[in-house]
């Protein structure tokens, strides 16, 4: 069975609540496409107004991070129950920016993965190599470790519903997209890794996105690859171009 494509915008630290609502209103008609899962992953403070603004549309709301405890003395953090109560269906975990600036590790990503599943939130787990790692020829070793540790104790049934985003760090926000061949090669490698950890059925079901300078011009070719099931889009998710990416065909 063909996997349904999933195109998610990662707004990062952009848009105040009122700007967020205005952007949703602008994008709503442009992203109407029932053949694709469309997700807006937005800053925590924008989640409630965005959830309200997307009511009655095909757009799902995602968070950009989440903590792995239920509640308590964790000043500044957001719990899984807070997200689900606000209508969140997806959460981006382990984005390279969180790994670089906020000390996220494979182990904390794994704890968050387990919590997300427990609460019925679909994780979009990010992985990806640095330029140095690519040049050293260790891309797949590094990514396999991110995936294997990130999925520790995740069941096959849970893994089947998960999303993995392959985002080469050197392609994020740089305008430098991985070539279609490079992107497909790694996404196929991630699927093979899932097949090893679980089984073929899980590898066939899991959705793998490419992220890193996806735009209206390159989406169609990237999403046509056998192992690329959509995209995680940064910069281009904040403008009308996102509609063209969702309607890439
Ligand atoms: O980090 C990304 C999405 O999570 C990619 O960002 P850009 O699309 O701006 O390169």
TrEMBL record:
Coiled coil segments of this chain: none
Keyword Cell inner membrane: no
Broad class of enzyme this protein falls into: isomerase
Pathway connected to this protein: Carbohydrate biosynthesis; gluconeogenesis; Carbohydrate degradation; glycolysis; D-glyceraldehyde 3-phosphate from glycerone phosphate: step 1/1
Family the UniProt entry places it in: Belongs to the triosephosphate isomerase family.
HAMAP family (alphabetical): TIM_B (MF_00147_B)
Protein's name in the database: Triosephosphate isomerase
Source organism per UniProt: Dorea longicatena DSM 13814
Lineage: Bacteria, Bacillati, Bacillota, Clostridia, Lachnospirales
Gene name linked to the record: tpiA
